[in-house]
Amino acid sequence: MITVILVIHLIITIALIGVILLQRSEGGALGIGGSSPAALFSARGAANALTRATAVLATAFFITSMLLTILSVRSQQPGSVFDRVAPQEGAPAGSVLPQLPKGQPSAPKTPATPAPAAPNAPGEPQVPVEQ
Prior knowledge:
By secondary structure, the chain is mainly α.
């Protein structure tokens, strides 16, 4: 169902782009469709037909967009991402902290004693003494 509506949506999109490009521009030189003596419509009739076609295609575009959105939301599973995660063994109930899976290396532990200072580094800040 979604595929059929998506194909219709793409066809409407391409047609809408074409109809918009065929319209005569007000600013000059950007519109492809100009008036020629052998034209099927008069200049005013062609403009009205293209305007109506644009309105119909734009309405169809918005309707198919909303249908695609509604169908995609309905096809998703309801609920939260947290509901899909299986609780880990040994984790307290209601725990929100992530647990590492079994067999995964744990985070490196920090050493209990601080690293020794470099031999030339001062131990504490030195205060200048006036002479």
